[in-house]
């Protein structure tokens, strides 16, 4: 009889029960249909024993693949597209592997295994597993009739029809219509919102003055890898003296990416609106390049790295895509740290000081510098007394970096040279993981990763330092920074008796918080983050 060949799920009960529990806990994106099909394939009777064993072997591979697909991990093809991972040091790979282990889940899994082995002696757990899968499927597809839905009140925040949203190119703000709808936005609505954002960003651009009539000064962009507002809070460095010395601070500056190469390209192309990740690697109009705009106003452009720039072709992106000259790298100096890939990292103050000595001897009236540092990158190691190495704590490295920059500002002020220092990190370090990403993982550019501390300090101006920085509180990105730089070069900063910061920072371009890496994009809708990975549908990012 066919009924005698119904073997049940066996140990696969543990597989499905575990996944359902992780799904209910919000740490797994459970794809109901695929799991139902997989369970059905396991339940179908196969009379020949050898065929049953073949199915078990094939099912093991399929089960692992489905678990990976259900997880929040990036698509597997994304990993295959990053051969640079093979260059990670063995110490860093081991450190990453340990981060993936959630000991609470390991303990819960052990308890679940013991409970399964105990209950399986008396109960047919396949019935409970199939029932749980069926209930989950019904819950995901069941929708209440519209007349049963609660109507919005003054205390509730409705969701608005995305198709009717209007975008203001001058401010970057998405305006709401008066046609609220209930429930979460649809996949097509979020896609339309993203497309509308990028379409309108293409119309935005900074207008630089035709000539630079101000007194000669330098502009120094300090581009720090792996430092966000969240990282400062975790390391308790948000009140560091460096930030108190700034004249202007951006409170909601969005880096729009979680990786170094795209971040630098976005900074170099800051004079136009935010582009999609793919468009970063396409030619842009000359007026989009911030440093080229400064070059037309008489600034010599230079770049300095405290690393070799080889990882992921960073040096090529800087020189080819970013149209930048070959950088100065202090290779004659002894490195301070060893990077995650085994390459050297030089001390920030030593590197900047060497460049500053070269700058004072150059004779150029105006210089625009891009300094890129990876001192804070995840996985960096410091030397030990016995000749070995150990993981360098982030807080210690961040403290040293900020202290070095503080001392460097002192050197600039003592030199009497006029300058504007712009502190603009690339992205965050993701010190705190979340439900979708472990600590250090930046595949999805969340707000904790892209909200970065950006500030500006004028050095050598004929005025007293302000007691408190002027804060730009509106959502901002690189276009606002480019606009502020344009206003600075068009103003006699070092001639006028005082700098009118409220006027200079008035009506800077506002940009909605949309962030994108290669293969992932995240946007906000009614202050709720939604993420799209590859060609999959949008999902609400778990908080």
TrEMBL record:
Q: Write out the coiled-coil annotation as residue ranges.
A: none
Glycosyltransferase is among the record's keywords? no
What InterPro entries does this protein map onto? BcsG
| Membrane-spanning intervals of the chain | 20-43, 50-69, 100-119, 126-150
Keyword tags: Membrane, Transmembrane, Transmembrane helix
Superkingdom in the source lineage: Bacteria
Record's Pfam families?
CBP_BcsG
Q: What is this protein called?
A: Cellulose biosynthesis protein BcsG
Query: Gene encoding it?
Result: bcsG
